[in-house]
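Late entry, evening session. Most of the bench is empty. Finally got around to the prediction I had been postponing all week. Sequence below, unchanged from the version circulated by S.P.
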Amino acid sequence: MSAIKDDRGFNQIFEQSEGNLVRLKRRAEWMIAEMEVQPEKKIMEIGCGTGYVAYNIALQSGMQVLGSDLCLPFIEEARSKYPLPNLRFEVLDFNKAAESVHNKFDYLIGNGILHHLYYNLDDVFRTFREILQPGGKIIFMEPNLYNPYVAAIFKNKFLRKKASLEPDEMAFSKQFIRQKLIKAQFDDIKVSYKDFLLPGVPDWLIKPSISIGNVLEKTPLRIISQSILISAVKKK
């Protein structure tokens, strides 16, 4: 499974194979399903990479979407690929977002970004609260530490190095992120096991993987899903 490095040399996003594009489109659809779709609503994606999730959400929902990322080459590529009137992309250091973001958002979303902020989540959630509208919602897909593949990549020093992970990057469990959100005083916290479709799966395995995953998500084996879907609401 090959990945694209950012301008610091760390792996950030998977190559846009057919399997990965299907995977990202499904994730965009799951995020939209967690929203009240209204054209005036504002969404910010944190860590948008080259923009495919933000593009799909803007295209399907018609809402106002801002894709943000630290990496200028990613943002330039996103701007080139996905011109839509309700979609824009900006370079943004989220660690300084409370200082530089002057708009309030109805939704903050991300695909595989919170685990990059693992050791700083308390501060991150405080920032979320500052830039969310009252009653605003966060929606994130994150790697599930109970998945054997994910656990191997994140826990094994050799595999971490081979995968070019950032030093502070760490997957987490459903229980861990729930406790962090409770501490941050979010309401209506929902964390569910989701998705057995791995990025980079061969084209002929895409549909069987989705079908098998849909069944496994209804069984106790859902605990080893590849990801967890997280949502929570800022108190009004």
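Two things to note before I forget:
The beta strands are 3-5, 11-14, 42-46, 64-69, 87-91, 105-111, 132-143, 186-194, 227-234.
Residues 43 and 107 are 5 Å apart (CA to CA).
Will write this up properly tomorrow.
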